[in-house]
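Notes from the 1:1 (GR / supervisor)

We went over the backlog. Supervisor wanted to see one worked example end to end before approving the batch request, so GR pasted a single chain during the call. The sequence is below; no edits were made to it. Supervisor asked that the structure be written out right there so they could see what the output format looks like.
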Amino acid sequence: MNTPPRVLFVCVKNGGKSQMAAGLMRDIAGDSVDVRSGGTTPGAALNQLSVQSLAEWNIDISEGSPKPITEADLEGADLVVTLGREAKVHAPEGTAVENWDTDEPSGRGIEGIERMRMVRDDINDRVRDLLSRLTS
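Structure output shown during the call:
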């Protein structure tokens, strides 16, 4: 029996981008990928605009909560994906790490739900690309 690849999505607070990436991957990959997420310095709550932007696509991440990444998370991952430049991880030797320097519309003056939809769309494209690489 083949075990699915385990992907760990990491951002600083684990309240927005990494939760969105995990929710999107679970939605499109189902059981074909073991998905985890965590933060380097977890916040207190999910970003409600992140939750809302995925709810628009009928993806519910509202029951999630920010959590720290652990050594076990890093050791168990086949791939660690950091979202944004701020999240730094020290994955065990042999564990693949890639960084997604995601779109940041706020740098262009775009805020609120419009900003989050653009972030969601960027992460969605990256998740779909990752899934195709994992399953090819």
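Supervisor's comment: Residues 112-135 form the longest helix (24 residues).
Batch request approved.
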